[in-house]
Amino acid sequence: MESSSAKAGGSTRREATRQKLYEAAVTLIAEQGFSATTVDEIAERAGVAKGTVYYNFASKSVLFEELLRHGVGLLTASLKEAAEQAAREGRGKVDALDAMIRAGLVFIDRYPAFTQLYVAELWRTNRAWQSTLMVVRQEAVAVVEGVLREGVAVGEFSDEIDVQLTAAALVGMVLVAALDWKSFQPERSLDDVHAALSRLLQGRVSGRV
Amino acid sequence: MESSSAKAGGSTRREATRQKLYEAAVTLIAEQGFSATTVDEIAERAGVAKGTVYYNFASKSVLFEELLRHGVGLLTASLKEAAEQAAREGRGKVDALDAMIRAGLVFIDRYPAFTQLYVAELWRTNRAWQSTLMVVRQEAVAVVEGVLREGVAVGEFSDEIDVQLTAAALVGMVLVAALDWKSFQPERSLDDVHAALSRLLQGRVSGRV
DNA sequence: ATTTTTGCACTGACCAGTCAGTGCAATTGC
DNA sequence: GCAATTGCACTGACTGGTCAGTGCAAAAAT
Fold it and tell me: How many angstroms away from the CA of A118 is the closest CA of chain B?
């Protein structure tokens, strides 16, 4: 019986436990914040003994840091994928940005708790995982900056734009709009929200029709 | 009776102490979060005894709630003021939005810690001050929604825009861009940042010059 | 046979909130 | 004048509870 995944990373069982702990931790911390969430709660929600948490992670904050890395990894991969696909299909940079907005929305749709928690921790200072967070943020924003820069190089975007700030603003736009969507009008469809943001991106807000 | 200081509001000393406590609490909570910040720390930073905190506020979370109300009050007033001034001067709704973006930036420039803390707590659920936060958020976003709606009525904005979502996206854009500015490129001027966001608002990102 | 998980008792640091008491200025009584 | 009194703002040691992390023997899974 070659256990399914075999030699690859580590035993499958352990990986499954870690996954359960991530899922339990992410919702609890999104709701209550890191400090207000107890390890006992996380263990209970994951359906696991407290000792298991410490068998798998060195400490509560290490668990959290690995959770952050894991989550942002997924997002970054998804953004890159969207940008590359648009490029492969020979579409313009505006389309690439649009595709990334959609990818961002899809991600937030699937992992709303993670997004919540990420936003809540991002601009804090003086916390243990601060530097982890910076690195991980930079990876994600860099993908957007890359597309903007290419757009400027190709002449599709004005060379007067401030790449760094514009990238941050775009990310913020999607993040906040999406959190609002999930929190206050969750019945709306992803397409709907995407259309509204596309319109904003392309400056079709002012101007009739 | 007219006790010493007198007539206006309440005793001056008390008001001064509360102000000191607000200031101490806002920076500490912005840095560390609500739960990770202790009442002892707040008292120490404010230069008062712990008992004084409880003499002035019923509990740690009441202190925090009043802080939130106080801060968002300032922001809302400032946004309204900007929108009204643009209207008084007979400028268009795009200009009004632009003026509000600037007002938002000025606010964040002046109270970065408050902004940080606000963003961090906004999308949490299951917290004591949740409802306070909702009310207070709605007040601020409503100002932006109002201008958008007026713009649609006047025909200056497309009637296809989704007012609620667009307002949220705009707020997010300013919020996140400004926090990025303060965190990662604090040497830049407000005008600079404002110009970059104006450009984005008016869809002058794509399109040459 | 080894790795992983369980269950549970325990420790020690930390922290929100309390309370008896202090300092001080203004008011009252004489 | 000058005690005695009152009320306000503040103090800081203390209490009762909470929680991260530990230790370990027994059970389960692979």
Answer: 9
Distance A3 CA to D24 C1' (A): 30
Q: Return per-residue pLDDT of chain B as tens, 209 residues.
A: 333 333 344 578 889 999 999 999 999 999 999 999 999 999 999 999 999 999 999 999 999 999 999 898 899 999 999 999 999 999 999 999 999 999 999 999 999 999 999 988 888 887 888 888 888 888 889 999 999 999 999 999 988 899 999 998 888 889 888 998 998 889 999 999 999 999 888 876 554 33
Q: Which nucleotide is closest, CA of A1 to its C1'? A: D30
The reply to whether the CB atom of residue B39 sits less than 7 A from any atom in nucleic acid chain D is no
**Exposed (0-12), middle (13-18) or buried (19+): which is A192, by Cβ within 10 Å?**
middle
| CA nearest neighbour of A133 among B183, B111, B37, B105 | B183
Q: Go through the domains of chain A in sequence order and give each one's CATH number.
A: 9-57 (1.10.10.60), 61-201 (1.10.357.10)
Q: Of the candidates A164, A72, A56, A150, which has an alpha carbon nearest to the alpha carbon of residue A111?
A: A72
Nucleotides of C under 7 A from a protein CB: 3-9, 14-20, 25-27
* Lookup: tokens for A139: 């990876």
**How deeply is A23 buried, as exposed, middle or buried, from its count of CB atoms within 10 A (0-12, 13-18, 19+)?**
middle
Q: Residue with structure tokens 């079709």?
A: A204
Q: What DSSP character marks residue B97?
A: H
